[in-house]
Structure prediction request, 386 residues.
Amino acid sequence: MSLDPETLAQFLETLDRFVKERLIPNEARIADDDAIPSELVQEIRDMGLFGLSIPEEYGGIGLTMAEEVQAAFVLGQTSPAFRSLVGTNNGIGSQGIIIDGTPDQKAAYLPRLATGELIASFALTEPEAGSDAGSLRTSARKDGDHYILNGTKRYITNAPRAGLFTVFARTDATSRTSAGVTAFLVEAGTPGLSLGAIDKKMGQKGSHTCDVILEDCRVPASAIIGGPAREGQGFKTAMKVLDRGRLHISAVCTGAAERLIRDSLAYAMDRKQFGEPIAEKQLIQAMLAESRTEAFAARCMIEETARRKDAGKNVSIDAASCKMYASEMVGRVADRAVQIHGGAGYIADYGIERFYRDVRLFRIYEGTTQIQQIVIAKGMIKEAGQ
Prediction:
């Protein structure tokens, strides 16, 4: 359900003020501590940010795609750790339940996901399977009215604090493709589910990933997203949520780029060399102009694709294009930001080097740039053949 323009404007204004007054001032603290303070987590809960895309009937805000990307533009302008905290609840952790879940699954989990009482995690990637779904090795063996899960999931975002995991496991041992993969809802604390050590990452401090280990983890057939009738349909569920996830990440990338441009412009106008601000130097101006133009192009792509998705159009190719372009774009903008800052850009005090490291991940997760290229090209070929 779409918000009326006045309510949306008020919400975005409040969110922007919260980002600037509460989140940005705590970025360095989070990077140093590798943790989000509990008081900030509570404030994020109070803002309703865990339920941005969850329907109002389950306690969420119920933003449309076009509205959600506007919120993501704002959230992207601070540390990715904050967006990551709420991202799985609004995206891959909840959308599968919203789209394909049974009424009981929706009632049991969505209200708690919307408030942040429950953190969701999406357990797909494995040591030998990421972009290649056909290599998925985690197994789910049927045992009466239950399934026995065995396998290891890797680089799982929010796993250390998650209370609910969407686990993808192969129920058809004879299949070597994405067919035969089933999506299970597995609660933290289920016997046989354990976690590995928290990964030490290049960037995005405060956002944690780790292995999820399943050893004879027994779950009922009712834990299948959509119920037992949807055995073997798990990867179809995953594909349904990707367009929204790609657009959300694209908007976060664009928000980060706009923050970097703003900081770079402010620095260039203040920093003086040869008797004048370096913003007066044409080569600095060229870098600022390139960054501004690329970020503007990304914003336009995302807003248009989001509107078309809300209108019920198939946007798979365009969503992949947005994700590919925006994630690559923010990397270029971050590189120019370091260059504009010169030596200061390499020093932690300014935060530019932190963003430089943080945004590198956007080109990898939720589908690498190379996977997006394949999705786009295959979609084009399919359309041409129709």
Q: What stands out?
A: The chain has a mean pLDDT of 94. The chain has three domains: 5-115, 120-233, 236-384.
